[in-house]
Specification:
Shape: elongated
Number of domains: 1
Number of helices: 2
Number of strands: 0
Oligomer: single chain
Largest sheet: none
Order of helices and strands: HH
Helix content: over 70%
Radius of gyration: 16 Å
Strand content: under 5%
Length: about 70
Amino acid sequence: MDDVQRKLDVLLDYWVEHNTEHAEEFREWAARISSLSGVAAQELLEAAARMSDVNEQLMKAKQALPKSEE
């Protein structure tokens, strides 16, 4: 595995973890503000759902990388 591929492999894992943390924050804030603005809370929940979709795409990208021969 060359350096670029190795770095991308690490970055993809990091991005998925980072997005997961943000999605959880969005859900927490949606719960906090639901009585203040149901619309804003729903938008945050939608953003969290889209983060999950992004993570699926990132994992597909990772799976599409050639496997290491190490």
